[in-house]
Design brief:
Layout (H helix, E strand, L loop, with lengths): L2 H11 L4 E4 L6 H13 L4 E4 L10 H16 L4 H14 L4 H17 L28
Parallel strand pairs: 1-2
Helix pairs in contact: 1-2, 3-5, 4-5
Length: 141
């Protein structure tokens, strides 16, 4: 429900509680505003979701990086670009040890996805999809 209508809806519907799920961490500020709106009218809220997951649980981010590596590899993008991005974030977030640990775990997961670094014979380069045989089309992903 759009934020501006939430308080009106809470007054009209009179719920006993509001369940709120937030999956993307970038939406946490919006979730916070929703919780504040619920509190403003005296309705308890139950926030949950992957974005509010347990402290120091890097598995969600690591799984996302693994998924991203698979998408990049299927599209012929070198996995070194993902590793470079993780390293850049690591340098910028050096004052945040928890973030550094999560980035390190994600980088390790990226290496596990392509342990050769894309340099083994027949790998087609860092995380690239091999060229199709003559007369065959590249599969759509």
């Amino acid at each position: 429900m759009p934020g501006p209508h939430l308080i009106t809806h809470l007054h009209q519907a009179g719920p006993d509680t509001v369940a709120l799920s937030c999956t993307l961490p970038t939406r946490l500020p919006r979730a916070h505003a929703t919780i504040a709106a619920c509190r403003a009218v005296g309705v308890p809220s139950w926030p949950a979701g992957a974005a509010s997951g347990p402290v120091d649980d890097a598995s969600l981010f690591t799984e996302f990086v693994g998924w991203t590596a698979g998408v990049l590899r299927a599209r012929g993008v070198p996995l070194t670009s993902l590793a470079a991005g993780l390293a850049a974030f690591g340098r910028e977030l050096r004052d945040f040890p928890r973030a550094g640990r999560m980035l390190a775990e994600a980088a390790a997961a990226c290496q596990m996805f392509d342990p050769s670094g894309g340099t083994s014979p027949g790998s087609g380069g860092a995380g690239t999809v091999p060229s199709p045989a003559p007369g065959q089309a590249r599969p759509r992903v």
